[in-house]
Amino acid sequence: MMIRCWTALLLAAGVCSALGSRAAEAPAWPDTPLARLEALALIQTLNAEILSSNSATLTLEHWCREHALADPAVILAHRTEQGSEAASEGVSAAVRADLEVSARQSVHYRRVELTCGEQVLSVAENWYVPARLTAEMNRLLERTQTPFGKVVQPLRPHRETKAADLLWSPLPDGWERGAHAPAGADASPQPLDFPMALFEHRAILYTPAHQPLAEVHEVYQRGILAFPQPQLPH
Fold first, then answer.
1. Mind listing the pLDDT tens digit for each residue in 181-192?
2. pTM, two decimal places
């Protein structure tokens, strides 16, 4: 997967500003070759786990619990736009085609930060068809901080990924050929400079009958690594 620099620049201008008061400090890791390799391994591990899962929310909750990011390890969805559920008029033709709805059918929109404790793990956009959910599900989405993935669990949805992109690699291009040396290889390394956004997914959630429920765009944040640098056993 190629790193999309232009996407990262857009995220720096848009997503990072949306994090507001919940934006946590970067993980306190040293900038060493080992730390960079560990960061890459962890990013790709979570990336693969989400790609193979039917629920990004449940995968993040498991990650939060396993890495002791919060106790209890509960994922909450914090809206970043007030009243965004009524944004049907701004839904693109491409999204409507993905959701298999006409221009007259209602499509709701939510933009949220998925958090575990103090850590922002993901910034997610969600376009969903309210007519395909129950009244109680729509109420929960409009009035609570319950993530979409948990709300629709009774429908037994499955997830099909449209795109998955790495936004940052801890290792520079050509590192394996000795073309570049990671920064911080000296005896007194500086802190590793984690960017806010690490990788992103676009996916569609379907019912067991393959009817689209929602389209999601998720940008996974550096909060997923907000724990001490792992120590390999000797």
1. 555 445 567 999
2. 0.84
